Amino acid sequence: MIDFNNKPLFLAPMAGFSDLPFRNVVKKFGADVTISEMISSNALVYENKKTLHMLKKAELEKPYIVQIAGSDAEIIKKAVLILNEIDFIDGIDFNCGCPVNKVVKQCAGSALLKDLDLFKKLVATIKEHNKKSLTSVKFRLGFDDKYPEKMAKICEELEINFISIHGRTRKALYSGDADYKSIAYAKSQVKIPVIANGDINASNANEVFNITKCDGLMIGRASVGNPWIFYEIKEGKKIDKALKKEIILFHFDEIIKHYGNLGVNIFKKHLHEYSKTHKNACAFRSEINHYTKALEMRNSIENFF
């Protein structure tokens, strides 16, 4: 389902950004694999309406992977069984990398890197019960120290299809530079596909491939306000102004289609990013912050870009 010989590009799961409309945009413009926003296994099992809405698949997504998080094996098993019943999901990814306090305090996300026995138990639970084509795990280099090869070897032993490694520890959060050499070391210790993640952009993508020898790249923050990054990496050239405008309008239309008029407010954070390098961006942001209707916002986008 994923051709690792072609060095695929993944969109990283990002809370508040990698929703269905954004995933559809990046799929149209170069991303090979998309992953949902992180889904709480507890929220999924207890049928939180917002969570069920987050599971929806964008039109262009294939393969489509749903990422879950949690720390209770029984709840995670129930979450996997629920996902098994949803036909359009192609794989399940397990989050062992989220560094935010509210997730870590629940012994989930990167907190699992402090307890590799629990890490192994939970990954094994997902692998055992997942009936989808793909099972994957995303993790950081470690909690305080770096030992990515330990998690990588556990995943290989459990026959996980691929792993994604963010080049920082939990302690580092998002500060400092991603450590690609540590990812490279983990990659050298296993035979399963490894995806490199952290600080990857159009300028350094080839360098990251060369350093890590990874089987693919996962791009997160660099795609916000810049979803054409996947196209630019693949084609080795910048896109023109006209195509940027087309992408921004397509993204806006997808937002409105998915959220209705609520999408007007949701899209403001994206427009703040899209407008960053443009002349008169401050005035534009001030203007759109007052909009409540889709048509007036779309007209403003047409005129500004």
| Span between termini | 37 Å
**What is the radius of gyration computed over CA atoms, rounded to a whole number of angstroms?**
19 Å
Q: Give the name of the CATH architecture of the largest domain.
A: Alpha-Beta Barrel
- Report strand %: 5-15%
What spatial order of strands do you see in the largest sheet? 1-2-4-5-6-7-8-9
Spell the H/E element sequence.
Answer: EHEEHHEHEHHEHEHEHEHHHHH
Family: Belongs to the dus family.
Catalytic activity: a 5,6-dihydrouridine in tRNA + NAD(+) = a uridine in tRNA + NADH + H(+); a 5,6-dihydrouridine in tRNA + NADP(+) = a uridine in tRNA + NADPH + H(+)
GO molecular function: flavin adenine dinucleotide binding; tRNA binding; tRNA dihydrouridine synthase activity
Organism: Campylobacter novaezeelandiae
